[in-house]
Amino acid sequence: MKAWQVHTHGEPRAVMRLDEVPEPRPGDGEVLLRVRAAAVNFPDALLCRGEYQIRPPLPFTPGVEICAETEDGRRVIANPSLPYGGFAEYAVARADALLPAPPVLDDAQAAALHIGYQTGWFGLHRRARLQPGETLLVHAAAGGVGSAAVQLGKAAGATVVGVVGGKAKAAAAEALGCDLVIDRTAEDLVARVKEFTGGRGADVVYDAVGGAAYTASAKCVAFEGRILVVGFASGTVPAPALNHALIKNYAIVGLHWGLYAQRDPAAVLACHEELTRLAAEGAISPLVSERLPLDAAADAVQRVADGTTTGRLAILPTGGAR
Question: What would the DSSP string read from start to end of 134-158?
């Protein structure tokens, strides 16, 4: 079969190589899956760089989120078991962690439903306790993770402020339903948030960026607000001033979604059922901006790493636009 492999760590475009390799053999409790679509995620770039919390042995195939078909014909969503990731014609995953793909979503959308939307749901509801009527500020609102948070925030009854970089991403955030879109490259983020909220600030901040985004968040978070730390796509891990959190009376809340998969898999299943319901009702729909063939995977991962994409990119190993 064809599979992208990483033989040494570095930038995705430089280190990913499309090889002809044997089909992977499932281990105990695992199943072989035919990949129908693989969503490109920022962790794929971190895996290539050797900077992710999981470091599979070299060589490995990246691709952490797929819609696939089981040997008995079921259409499922899965997180592949590395080193046999999803940027390949076949992948391997734990049998007990397979989730049914929502019929209302096509393969590319289903592949993009799991990580970003589970992260958004657990972050907004379990960690930040977002309430109807509150103001939610989402950084990188036009990206894969941010667009999921925007849709989930709107579904929860929040007023959503989306922060983006550039006019094209601003248009995408507006189409997603943001009540206010701020182009951080052309506007004063803090001033705009305070103006929009009548000086109160954002009740919940969804930050998968870190760096300057976190610094701005601390300046415009509301009294008893919650800054939800999801990731550091900027490459800069902020060092919060805890005296500032004390003086302004806000909370800094962390989220590592993978821990729920390890410690509370029943909650992950319940979340998937809720996401499936929301998808069926049209409240959420993964923003897939491009559907690409397998040979475009390395370039796609690099583009996500560089922050130049909107929504999700999906790789279709068989070339079909499903």
Answer: -EEEEETTTBHHHHHHHHHHHHTT-
Q: Return the structure tokens found at 137.
A: 């500020």
- Give the global pTM: 0.93
What CA–CA distance (Å, rounded) separates 133 from 171? 24
Q: Using CA of residue 257, residue 261, residue 267, residue 273, what is the dihedral sign?
A: positive
Pair of tokens at residue 200 = 């109160």
Q: Does residue 321 contact residue 315 with C-beta atoms inside 8 Å?
A: no
Residue 47 · residue 54 · CB < 8 Å: yes
Q: Could you tell me the two tokens for 321?
A: 């636009």
30-39 vs 312-316, strand pairing mode: antiparallel
Q: How far is CA 244 from CA 141, 232, 236, 252, in A?
A: 26, 21, 20, 11
pLDDT tens digits along 28-63 = 999 999 999 999 999 999 999 999 988 999 999 999
For tokens 């009527």, what's the residue? 133
